[in-house]
Write a structure and sequence with these properties.
Number of strands: 16
Strand order of the largest sheet: 1-16-10-13
Number of helices: 4
Structural class: alpha+beta
Distance between the termini: 52 Å
């Protein structure tokens, strides 16, 4: 990321460290910042972020009080997105969020005023759950002590309500609640082992942090799959409340609630497998046996999901029972082949 061409900035380098299932994108810096000698001048800096896990994508507008035309427009900003900084003159600004594709003249679903001061930087972030989302103005640092780094944590995971984050032996956050953030902490640059733990998930990763840069660690949920799960789940609950289905329709709705829970769990398992693969190092696996097992496992899973979809769509009980039988036989064959692993 680059704030201004004559300042050396740190690009986004902590992309997608997942806390098992709950914190995909865990140490993803929302942005980088300036060196110790940077940022004197007559301007301020502002960036926009969407950090509300179960809130759909939005269009975000930045207005100056002195100009009715938007200074910046970001379309379809999804959860976990943080914009680059925009250089602005000191003064009063408005940040407005609208539904994707809504007319720029339509009333915003959320807005707030920001007072920008010379040589100051701000992040305006949509935070909190969907039913309590708010625009929060975060004061960002723009300079570090020479040769050091500054680091802070924003807790934007709804699934893991309390999260603790460490870097080496240094505790960056302890039981940080959803929607909260820490103060900046001065630290030494270098390669750190970051660890994060929530109520049911944990993860770790080694990251190299260069001196004279500022880092914000944002803790995120696995947004895409979890977002779809929440969307479908809320739709089903709305259907139950408004239409009051009975008999066969009610059984179908109940089945769909059961199905989406397991589809979401399957996605979580994919995340777990992807993170287990490189445990022996950072290079992808090269052993033919491991690669073949992964391909075989993927083919089996794809085949079973396809058959499950077909049996559900056609209401074919025999096809569903065949799937259960094939799965049981396949599991028994695998255990028999690899029974020596159980000794």
């Amino acid at each position: 990321m680059r704030l201004l061409t004559n300042y050396r900035m740190l690009s986004r380098l902590l992309a997608a460290l997942a806390l098992s299932v709950g914190l995909a994108g865990l140490l993803a810096p929302a942005a980088s910042a300036a060196t110790a000698s940077s940022m004197p001048g007559m301007d301020g800096w502002i960036r926009l972020a969407h950090l509300s896990p179960n809130t759909p994508a939005v269009d975000v507008y930045l207005y100056s009080f002195s100009d009715p035309h938007a200074k910046l427009v970001l379309h379809h900003v999804a959860y976990g997105t943080v914009s680059p900084y925009t250089k602005v003159a000191p003064g009063e600004y408005t940040v407005a969020m609208r539904k994707p594709g809504a007319s720029p003249s339509s009333p915003p679903v959320l807005s707030t005023a920001v007072h920008v001061v010379t040589d100051h930087a701000y992040t305006v972030a949509g935070m909190g759950p969907a039913n309590g989302i708010r625009l929060q103005i975060l004061q960002d640092q723009i300079m570090t002590p020479k040769g050091k780094i500054l680091i802070r944590v924003i807790q934007a995971s709804l699934h893991q309500h309390l999260v603790s984050v460490t870097a080496g032996k240094q505790v960056l956050a302890h039981d940080l609640a959803f929607g909260q953030l820490t103060r900046y902490r001065v630290a030494n640059p270098g390669t750190w082992t970051f660890r994060a733990a929530g109520g049911s998930e944990h993860t770790s990763r080694m990251i190299k942090l260069v001196p004279n840069c500022i880092h914000t660690i944002v803790i995120l949920d696995d947004d895409r799959l979890d977002g779809r799960y929440l969307e479908v789940h809320q739709g089903i609950l709305s259907l139950l409340a408004r239409q009051a289905p009975v008999a066969g329709d009610l059984r179908l709705v109940a089945a769909l609630l059961h199905v989406i829970k397991h589809v979401e769990r399957m996605g979580d398992q994919c995340v777990n497998i992807a993170k287990l693969i490189p445990l022996s190092g950072h290079e992808p696996p090269v052993r033919e046996e491991v690669l073949q097992q992964l391909l075989h496992m993927g083919a089996l899973a794809r085949s079973e999901v396809t058959q499950a979809k077909q049996s559900f769509a056609a209401r074919d009980v025999a096809l569903a029972e065949d799937l259960v039988r094939q799965h049981a036989l396949g599991l028994a064959e695998h255990v028999k082949k690899h029974v020596d692993y159980l000794d």
